[in-house]
Amino acid sequence: MSFFPNGVRLEPNMVDSEFWEHCRQQRLMFQSCGACGEMRHPPTPFCPCCQSTHITWREAPKVGKVYTYTVAHHAADSSVDGAAPYIIALVEFDDFGSVRLVTNIQCGIDEIRIGLPV
After folding, report:
1. How far apart are CA 31 and CA 18, in angstroms?
2. Per-residue pLDDT of the chain in tens (118 residues, 90 and over written 9)
3. Which backbone phi and psi does 59 adopt, to 5 degrees?
4. Are 90 and 42 in contact (CB under 8 A)?
5. What is the pLDDT of residue 71?
6. Of 27, 94, 106, 30, nearest to 67 (Cα)?
7. Would strands 55-59 and 86-92 be described as parallel, antiparallel, or unpaired?
8. What letter does residue 91 receive in the DSSP assignment?
9. Is 100 exposed, middle or buried (0-12, 13-18, 19+ CB in 10 A)?
């Protein structure tokens, strides 16, 4: 099942292809530095803290929480015409440092709130 709007093509590159492969397998994984343990997202070829190129991957917890959100009342792109209003959120995960994921949230606009478990 794809969560991309019709007509949107994903073109992974050498830096993020492993992230997207995990997603294809329905696993949400984030990079962790194999040297210092710093978590990061989006994927990068080296650690921004210690510059190590030793990359490991950690699976995210099944539940995160809304860090912040916005409600889009107008389609940001023609591929999502007719979808408005929709919720765009930053989701954070316990024990994953400053890693946050930009995503859409499928709930009622009256239900969304900061801290909501998702």
Report:
1. 10
2. 345 666 667 788 889 999 999 999 999 999 999 999 999 999 999 999 999 999 999 999 999 999 999 999 998 777 788 888 999 999 999 999 999 999 999 999 999 999 999 9
3. -75, 135
4. no
5. 96
6. 94
7. unpaired
8. E
9. middle
Q: C-alpha 95: how far from its chain's center?
A: 16
Q: Is 91 exposed, middle or buried (0-12, 13-18, 19+ CB in 10 A)?
A: buried
**Residue 14, C-beta contacts closer than 8 angstroms, at least 6 positions apart:** 45
Task: Give me the amino acid identity at 113.
Answer: R
Q: Domain segments of the chain: what residues?
A: 11-59, 61-118
Q: Per the structure block, which two tokens stand in for 110?
A: 């009256």
